Amino acid sequence: MYQLNDYLSYSIAVFLIVLVSGLIVNLLEKHFIFQLLGIVFFFMYTILKPIGIITNNFDISFKEFYISSLPMLAGIAACLISMFLGFLAFPSIRKKLKD
């Protein structure tokens, strides 16, 4: 099984990549559609991956279960943060770029 440091560094990388791409998507008019799709993707993956882990290893602890879900939860958090910024800060940026 992977170490906690591996999952933490992977989770941070997922968070940063999804956040940067979410901020780029915020430049579009209908940015929330893509961000909702990202949240749905990460949510479904958060459900399906642990099911696969449990079917392979029924004696998994809650700690291992949570640690294996960290990258997906980081992706969901990044999507939510970029969506919040898209509604809060990016309308004025889109207006400036449009003019």
What layout of secondary structure does this protein have?
Elements: H1 4-25, H2 31-56, H3 62-88, H4 90-98
- Shape call: elongated
- Unreliable spans: none
Radius of gyration: 16 Å
Count the DSSP helices: 4
* Share of helical residues: over 70%
Structural class: mainly alpha
Average of the residue pLDDT scores: 85
The rounded distance between the terminal residues' Cα atoms is 53 Å
What structural keywords apply?
99 residues, mainly alpha, 4 helices, 85% helix, elongated
Give a brief rundown of this model.
With 99 residues, the chain is mostly helical. The protein is 85% helix and 0% strand.
Q: How would you describe this structure to a colleague?
A:
- The chain is mainly alpha-helical and 99 residues long.
- The protein has one domain.
- The chain has helices at 4-25, 31-56, 62-88, 90-98.
- The model has no long low-confidence stretch (mean pLDDT 85).
